[in-house]
Design a protein that fits this description.
The protein has a single domain, classed as 2-Layer Sandwich (Protein Binding, DinI Protein, Chain A). It is built from seven helices and two strands, in the order αααβαααβα. The protein has a two-stranded parallel sheet with strand order 1-2. The two termini are 29 Å apart. One of its GO terms (molecular function) is unfolded protein binding.
Amino acid sequence: MRADRTGFVGPRRSSWLQGLRAPVLAAALVAGVGGFFAAEETAAAQSKIAVIDVRRAMLETEKGLRVQATLKKLFDSRQVELDAKQQKLQAEKEALEKDAQNKKVSQDQLQRRFEALQKQAAELQAIAMEYQREMQRKETEMTTPIYQEIIGIVRRIAAQDGFEIILEKTAVPYMRADLEITDRAIQMYNSAQGGGDAGGKPPATQPGKPAAPAAPATAPAPAPKKK
């Protein structure tokens, strides 16, 4: 998963979660997709095919929901800081314009204040870029393990049900609803995170010791609104 998938852009609010995209499934899972679209109907009917929305599977797992909440909290804290700096810069700019119109300040003073504002604006832009990189690093760090685990579940589903091809949903122009395995992958992931084995078996317990309960799911974090 590459770090440039995020849509977080500078001091403006953006729907960075909506920009999150999982990479296309591993080559082993999509091998033969070109042949699928080119094959005759009789040959295609003999193949067992499934479809998964990898991005939704990642974000709607219990762990994915917690990741969204953590990223949103980080985003909001950085956004508050940037907004405060932006408002201060705007106030200084308006004060400079007012003094320039009233002609009560010398040109030399106005020029120095203008140059200082330019420097502050450049520093604010640099801070915004650093926050963007920070968001990208954090997102990659937190979502890559989920992606890898989802792909592992996809492989297990393929082995269990004999699917020859499992396609990424975004690459499929049409499909029957019953071919999608996204919800199944989410359930298997949550089961494994709660102590199960993603294959539906109950978690092992020690004699006389109850199994640990699964971590509670959190509500989906709404994407920040653009200004």
